[in-house]
Amino acid sequence: MRKFTIDRIEEDKAVLECENGDFVTMELSSLPKTIREGDVIRFNTNSCFLDADETKRRSQKIRALMEKVFEADD
């Protein structure tokens, strides 16, 4: 199963970043309707789905890193 992160959404397309750093572009219509930038999408042989748990973990990790950076500036 492959994992991608939604890097950005441009009109009717989404740019996805693969775990290895490569980027692919897909039609929004072929992805879950509720996706937004930063979401983690998993693909298996016949489908794809939003990985809400992984998205939440990544969001919390990024938030914690940002808080550290801004604390260091004080």
What can you tell me about this protein's structure?
The chain is an alpha+beta fold. The chain has one helix at residues 52-73; strands at 2-10, 13-18, 23-27, 40-43, 48-50. The chain has a 5-stranded antiparallel sheet. It starts with a strand and ends with a helix. The mean pLDDT is 92.
Q: Descriptors for this entry?
A:
single chain; 74 residues; alpha+beta; 5-stranded antiparallel beta sheet; 5 strands; elongated
* Order of helical and strand elements: EEEEEH
Oligomer: single chain
Number of strand segments: 5
Which radius of gyration do the C-alpha atoms yield? 14 Å
Calculate the mean pLDDT score and round it. Answer: 92
Straight-line distance between termini: 43 Å
Query: Could you name the CATH class?
Result: Mainly Beta
Structural class: alpha+beta
Q: List segments where confidence is low: pLDDT < 50 over at least 5 consecutive residues.
A: none
Number of helices: 1
Biggest beta sheet attributes? 5 strands, antiparallel
Q: In percent, how much strand structure appears in the residues?
A: 35-45%
As laid out across the biggest beta sheet, the strand order is 3-2-1-4-5
How helix-rich are the residues, as a percent range? 25-40%
Count of discrete domains: 1
Quick description:
The chain has 74 residues and is α+β, with helices and mostly antiparallel strands. It has one helix at residues 52-73; strands spanning 2-10, 13-18, 23-27, 40-43, 48-50.
